[in-house]
Design a protein that fits this description.
single chain; mainly alpha; two-stranded antiparallel ribbon; two-stranded antiparallel sheet
Length: 183
């Protein structure tokens, strides 16, 4: 089945349409039979597609994946509430928040491991600013926009933070925001 995502120009990079279509088909199949566990919100969040010239435009595909992820996360949370009760979800939320607090309470420029000076990582100042926003949200329920967190882009800088650690942190922030939204 094909989908009507806009296509990039012949010289622009976009996602490989066959990969996107195959993944959307798999997600649709999962959505129509919710007992199967092929596709999860975590899988959607961590899905990557190859780039080719003239492929699907990245923005519309990413937006569709965000909506899919939100839908699947909502279903997963509701299923967990039905199976284990509100307490189980509240406990999961508290555990993830505690992990995040441990990270955001670290001193500036030390919130994550640094790559060596010869390598580039995420800009520490920008990542620390995101951590400050997360800390304000955790402490006082200051609103934090899910889409803004997902779309956060950091400059690369020498001796910056290790990208995989920051990406995992952002995944946990997204998970917290989704639980808060669905409880």
């Amino acid at each position: 089945m094909s989908f009507s995502f806009p296509v990039a120009g012949p010289k622009e990079l976009g996602y490989v349409p066959e990969q996107v279509n195959a993944f959307i088909d798999q997600a649709r199949e999962q959505f129509n039979s919710p007992d199967a566990d092929q596709v999860t919100s975590d899988l959607i969040r961590n899905t990557h597609f190859d780039l080719i010239r003239g492929g699907y435009l990245i923005g519309p595909v990413d937006s569709a994946l965000d909506r899919l992820e939100d839908t699947f996360a909502s279903r997963e949370i509701k299923r967990q509430i039905a199976k284990s009760g509100d307490y189980a979800v509240a406990d999961r939320l508290a555990r993830i928040q505690e992990i995040l607090r441990g990270r955001v309470e670290r001193p500036k420029n030390q919130k994550f491991s640094n790559v060596s000076f010869l390598l580039r990582g995420y800009n520490r100042k920008q990542v620390d600013a995101l951590c400050d926003s997360v800390a304000r949200h955790l402490d006082s329920e200051t609103p934090l926009d899910l889409t803004a967190v997902r779309r956060t882009i950091f400059k690369a800088s020498r001796a910056g933070y290790v990208e995989s650690q920051v990406d995992a942190f952002i995944d946990r922030v997204v998970e917290v925001l989704q639980i808060e939204k669905n409880c």
